Amino acid sequence: MNKIVVIIVALFFVQASAQNNKKDFEPKTKTDHILFAISAIEHDSDLVAALAYINEAISEDSNNYFSYAVRGNIYLLQKEYYLALEDFFRILSANPDDFSSLLARAKCWYYLKNYEAALKDLDEIIGLEPFDGDVYLWRSKVKKVLGDNIGAEADLKIYQKIND
Predict the structure, then answer these.
(1) How far apart are CA 60 and CA 131, in angstroms?
(2) Model-wide pTM > 0.85
(3) What CATH number should be reported for the domain whose range is 102-164?
């Protein structure tokens, strides 16, 4: 939840300042690069620019896991699943319970058709955060592909109940 608040605040800042001053303001710091990357994703849907900005932020601070999370999600949107996995593995090696990275990694595994690995990550997330409906939706998709129609239907019902 804290990450969502940080992202919302960052997006608000970017929209309020960088968007108005885009012609006069070029990113100079790691934070500027991160904010410009998020802005490029959210407002411009320019994943190439977002990737360039976030790579610059990573080059300035290679220990900032938030930057790797942003880049991993850019790779996920670009369907560069193996590159995304590298970033999510990096984050999870430092913080094994990172909900967002586990979910993103599960999505990568799903798209790479490694359904057992996706299911393992989704089960782990549910053990950590059993009240997030999206996790049940993704687990329902995985179970359906694996032929567990009863489990898929049960997860879909939980998803619907949480999101009602």
Answers:
(1) 36
(2) no
(3) 1.25.40.10
Give the tokens for residue 32: 């500027």
pLDDT at res. 77: 92
**CATH class for the region spanning 1-95:** mainly alpha
> Residues spanned by CATH 1.25.40.10 within the chain?
102-164
Cβ burial 57-90 (10 Å sphere, 16+ → b, else e): bbeeeeebbbbbbbbbbbbbeeebbebbbebbeb
At 5, list the tokens: 């608040």
Residue 25 confidence (pLDDT): 57
- C-alpha distance from residue 127 to each of 90, 110, 120 (Å): 21, 19, 11
Measured CA to CA, the distance from residue 6 to residue 67 in angstroms comes to: 13
